[in-house]
Write a structure and sequence with these properties.
The protein contains 4 helices and 5 strands. By secondary structure, the chain is an alpha+beta fold. Strands 1-3-4-5-2 form a 5-stranded antiparallel sheet. The chain is elongated and about 55 Å long. It starts with a helix and ends with a strand.
Length: 161
Amino acid sequence: MGRTAALELAEERARASIGSWERRSLGVVRVEDAAEFARAAGESAPRLVDPGHAGFAVHPMYVVSVLRGAPGADPAEFRPDGMYRDEVPGTDGLDVGLMAGGQTVHWTGEVRPGDLIELSRALTSVERKGSGDGFLLLTVKKSYAAARGTLVEVTERFIVR
């Protein structure tokens, strides 16, 4: 399938899924994983990197940066470019290029070790941009919640070429 046909199929699939909310568990926030994330992000504050610290806190970007709950995901879950196959609506199995197109994050609560995180997401818009084949700009709304309520709301944009 050529680039034009793949892009058209991605657009058709994406438009068909607008407004359909999907939910999945990201698993439990483990203190060790949260501390490792903070260290990898260049943090050095003991409250973010030392699981034994009395005031340990999960880095605010941890939940929105982790796409799956457990390390060691099945390689079949990934695209050749390293993204999860189902991360960008409409593109699974298609030979299209993907890029991040921006993100806004609104924190409404604090993520805590031991929280069972549920992700809810829906594609909210599909726009065709550029001349010729151009590209698609997809907007996805996400909500990360624990038993006590919503913790983070995110709007992400993806460029599909």
